[in-house]
């Protein structure tokens, strides 16, 4: 049997591999957790504001904000729910008149899941608070995780009533009690007051993964599973949203939405 | 509006921008996206609002009169993420040149900003050109 000779090259390779294992171990050990051992979702999260991520390029004293050569995080495009055949006439009618009917174009709250992942999360042992810095304003959702049931003493709202629980390292949020003033997404995607939304949030490689499923069997042919969104940890703080004042609708020559799918 | 009376520098860009200028943010319902122009004037105000912010640009015509353009641009959240503030956008009061799409409904003084170039040469590119 040939004995393996410990050459300088082999020793160096071993040292590098050992260092890598140590680095990975340290990284895993440092993943943030809450005092109760669950992942800590707290932080400010850059989700690209529902369109694409702003990746500005500094060129001396100039800045390229959009239309630059680089867009490292790519475009997170939207998708569409599938409606029951008997309600498609309503969907098509709303789509054709969406600049008149889509309340988000008049600065109303976008609803859930259309508002997307939260821009900031504050997590305690009994609740999480989701904060949003949306085009239409600042919004919040309180998600109790102490086992309490949904509230029955509040009026239906744009963002509904949420409760949450942990499934291993994933936070599951169930939201009900919506009004029917919002849409699920663009193009006539209406829903009823029986809408129920399940969101799943988890930390993967220090990014926030957000997935949502909309249940509304009265109008949807099947539950609508949105494409999973990724938000990146940010050092920026959310700010007070400027006023939302709509000025485009009077100048549109075609009844088209802005097409920034959300 | 009789454009022949304007003494501003208006360079008709023959560059044809694709309709999918920003495929995720189509402007075609409101603006003429295949024929951008350039105008020069002084920024007098900025409305830091959503869903789009607005710059007011005073342009001097041949008779010495002032024509105020209202120019739409990106949402404030995108400007903030790029490090831009209202003060940076307004600049130092010297004339700027803006490359814009004009309005399709005939509103003569409404446009959408693609790029702003300031007197010292620095610029902010806000959309695909």
What features would you describe in this structure?
The complex is a heterodimer of chains A (262) and B (129). Chain A has helices at residues 8-29, 88-96, 98-101; strands at residues 43-46, 57-59, 62-64, 120-123, 127-134, 137-144, 161-167, 170-176, 196-204, 207-215, 224-225, 229-234. With 262 residues, chain A is α+β, with helices and mostly antiparallel strands. Chain A has a domain at 43-48 and 82-234: Lipocalin (Beta Barrel), CATH 2.40.128. In chain A, strands 1, 4, 5, 6, 7, 8, 9, 10, 11 and 12 form a ten-stranded antiparallel β-sheet that branches. In chain A, a hairpin with an 8-residue loop joins strand 10 and strand 11 (224-225). Chain A starts with 7 loop residues before the first helix and ends in a 28-residue tail after the last strand. Chain B is mainly beta. Chain B has a single domain (17-125), classed as OB fold (Dihydrolipoamide Acetyltransferase, E2P), CATH 2.40.50. Helix content of chain B is 9%, strand content 40%. Chain B is built from two helices and six strands, in the order E-E-E-H-H-E-E-E. In chain B, strands 1-2-3-5-4 form a five-stranded mixed β-barrel. Chain B is globular and about 40 Å long. The two termini of chain B are 26 Å apart. Chains A and B meet through strand 3 of A and helix 1 and strand 6 of B.
